[in-house]
Design goal:
Elements (H helix, E strand, L loop, with lengths): L1 E3 L4 E3 L6 E3 H9 L3 H10 L21 H14 L4 H9 L4 H6 L9 H14 L8 E2 L2 E2 L1
Antiparallel strand pairs: 1-2, 2-3, 4-5
């Protein structure tokens, strides 16, 4: 899922759902947009009279080199399912570009996804300034 805080929009690459933050909040909470708007407006951070507070990020990103290494490791653990390859071909992609661009399928099975995440978490520490790759400093 991609979130754009500047345009206040979201888009899910898996199911194609998209829209504005109020709609996303409504879907997550299982309520309609009107109620979601009211709930968000009642919160301090969305109030018209909000105080000037600085919000520090909870999760700082690791450096790009580490994120790239993790992403490449993840791609190495995934394969492209035949139905996804067929869909890409139907959209006009050539087999060479599918291979070069490293298209992969994320397992639908929750347990398989958790196993991949567990394997990555054992190999990489993504906490900022803690670049330990199993066996040494990255």
């Amino acid at each position: 899922m991609s979130l754009n805080s500047q345009t206040n929009k979201y888009c899910c690459s898996r199911c194609g759902a998209g829209g504005y933050s109020i709609g996303l909040y409504a879907k997550v909470k299982g309520i309609d947009n009107k109620k979601a708007y009211r709930e968000l407006l009642d919160r301090e951070c969305f109030s018209l009279n909000k105080s000037q507070i600085e919000i520090s990020p909870i999760n700082l990103l690791a450096d790009i080199e580490l994120r790239d290494a993790v992403y490449r490791e993840l791609l190495g653990m995934l394969k492209l399912e035949s139905n996804h390859k067929r869909s890409l071909r139907n959209m006009g992609f050539l087999d060479t570009s599918i291979e070069l661009d490293l298209y992969r399928s994320v397992p639908r099975n929750y347990i398989k996804r958790r196993l991949i995440a567990n394997c990555l978490s054992k190999k990489f520490n993504l906490a900022r300034n803690s670049w330990f790759l199993s066996g040494g400093r990255f």
